[in-house]
Structure formats: C-alpha cells, structure tokens
C-alpha cells in the first residue's frame, strides 16, 4: 500500500508541477505573440527580420551554453537528495565561466558576421545581445537545480516574472525610439529579473567545502551536451540557412513570425521534460522501473494530444498570420502548418532524451541527435535554394520527425518502452478532421478567433469520441484539485 501511495503521489506531484508550469510558461507564447505582433508592426518585415536573425544566433549560443550541464544536473541533483548543494554550487560557477567565455566569443565574431550578413548594424546588435549570455546561463543553472529538487511551483513563478517583464520592457523601450536595440535590451532586463527571482527561491552558495568535480559529471554532461547542442543548432539552422542561401530579410521575417506561433508545442517541452526527467530519476532511484516506463508511455500520449493543434494551424495558417501580424505577413501562413508539425517532432525528441537521461543511458542520445542535424542540413541545401522560406520550413519539419523516429526506436531498444501507437492513430484522426474543417471553413478578419475556439472545442470532443480521453484522465484532473491544496511547496 505504501508503494502504491508513493507512486500516486509522485504522479500527482508531476502532474501538479506540469499544470502550474504550463500555466506559467503559457505566458511565453501569449506574451511572445503580443510582442511579435507589436514588433512586426513597429520594425516592419525588414527590421523584424534582422532582429529574428540576431536573436536566433545568440539564442542558439545561449541555449548551447546553458545546456552543457543542465540535463546532467536534473539527474544528479535528483539523486543527491540533501547533498544537492555540492552539485548546485559547482553548476553555478561553471555556467558563469562558460557564459562569460561565450559572450566574449560572440563579441569577437560580431564584426565578421556583420560583413557576412551584409549590414554593419548587425555587429552592434550581436555585441549588445551577447551581454545576455552569462546572465541567461546562470539563471538556467538555478532553474535546473530547482527542478531537480522538485521545486516545480517556484520554477513556475520565475517564469511568470520573466515573460511579463519581457513584454512590458520590450514594448516600452521600442516605444522610446530604440528600435531593434530596445527589443534586445528589454530581453536582457527580463533575464536579469528571472535570475533575481530564482536566487530568492534557490539561494545556491557560490562555494562549498567539498564541491563536486567536473570529472564526476562528465559521464552525463558530455553526451547530453552534444544532444542538446545539436537540437539548439537544429532550431535555428532553418533561419540561418535561409539567409545564407540568398533569402531576403523579408523572407526571414515571415519565417520568424511563423516560428513565434509554432513555439506552442515546444511550450510543453520546456515545462514538461525537465519535470519528467526529475520525476523519473526519483522513480529509478527508488527501484520503480515499471512505473517509470508507464510514465514514459503516458508522456508520449500527452505529446500526441497536440496533433489536432497541427491540423488547426495548417488549415487556417493564412488567416492566423494575417490576424496576428498584419497583411504584410500573410505569406507566413503556409509555413505555420509545417513548423507546427515539426515542433511536435522536437517535443518527442526532448521527451525521449529526458527519459534516457533518467534511465541512465545518456550516451544513447548522441546518435539520433547528430542524425537530426545532418538531415536538416542536407534537406535544407536541397530545398531552400528552390523554395525559399517554404523549403526551409519543410526541410526542418521532415528532419524533426526523422530524428523523432530514431529517438523512439532508441528508447524502445535500450529501455524496452512500448510505444502508444493506438493513441497516435486516434489523435491523428482527430487532427486530420480538424485540418479539413479549418481549410474549408473560410473566415474573414477577427472571426478566425471564434473559428479557432470552436475547432479547439471540437478537437477535445473528438478525443473523447475516439476514446483517447476517458475516465482515467478525468479522475487525474479531479485529483489535482485536492493535491494542489496539500502538495509541498
């Protein structure tokens, strides 16, 4: 009975954390869309295209640095228990050093990259945005330690502060006439605020008596860093390849606008995967391997539930782009369906990487991560010169699912996890139905909002009709009501 209670509590704590995390991280796409809608009008396609290019490059560097140790931290902090400060202190210092080194590197490359992209202003923007790299890296280290200790609620609060302040600061500074520089400084200030909030909840000492050594974490850190770096490179390579293959700043702006909408599925990855990794680590530590495999199957089912969202954006892409970004960005519409579909593939990739990390197989992640990038580059070089932004979106999406397929095969081979194929088929049926209705039902102007609400509601009923959602999911949702009142903070 005690084991069963522990299992139920662990599942509920994970679900509680995911719900709260999703509520907090949902501010990212919401405020992100508002910010993007404002910037596309304030900076126009060309200015927004340059901002997208700079943010994509520096964002890739930031996430590459931040994820050197972060996935390993989730595993090691979760296993350490009360001895977590040894790992936390070392992580903060390592992230600070790596962040400062990456900042100096980007500043040194700013002028050459400005000449490559054909605009000297890019050098100034790159140097300015590079200041954010060490701040972001240290803040991410604090988030990883919080998650590894089970502090899901505190992580959610930090996210709320970051995304709300980002919207206010970016709009305010751009309104003051600072243009692209104002958007960059607003993003930097919001990251500083996030760091302050995370340190309040997780005051990690800068030094401890017996800190963990680098050698102790390399077994996890190196393969997981390679996998994470590959995924971050994959995230931005479509934008970089579009520009490198002769795409205009306007095309980059269209692609950047579509990416802002396609971030929605990856919201689940940002929130769910770190918590899943920490929860599975605790389960494996306690010897509950079968329970961990069941949680993995349920995690993949949650990913499949987003397939109707792909159908909705693919069918109403032009209407959505026109409503959010204005008539100048209607051409971003055909890109939305492809990018949303590919985003689901990257979520699968991240879920499997988190599962293999918790299970103790970090090296198994490297193969499918490298294959993901190679496939993206190959298809991009083939399609981008001929089809421009659409070719970049198609290459990225198909490569994402190629990598996701390899990841699913790997976790099945290594850890004997059975795939929820039936759930995939049910969700695909609902997704295709939503896509057909969204494509055939043309709606002018703001009526697309009502259309999306009705189709989203129809998708929920569709999942019930095909018996993908039933009493089990309803009882879990009800159990969260009582759990939220008593769950540990």
Features:
489 residues; mainly alpha; disordered N terminus; disordered C terminus
Structural class: mainly alpha
Low-pLDDT runs of 5+ residues are 1-7, 479-489
Number of strands: 0
Q: Count of helices? A: 17
Helix residue percentage:
over 70%
Distance between the termini: 25 Å
Rounded to an integer in angstroms, the radius of gyration calculated over CA atoms is 22 Å
Largest sheet: none
**Morphology call:** globular
Question: What proportion of the residues form beta strands (DSSP E)?
Answer: under 5%
Rounded average pLDDT? 83
Taken together, the total number of domains comes to 1
Q: Write the element-wise H/E pattern from the N-terminal end onward.
A: HHHHHHHHHHHHHHHHH
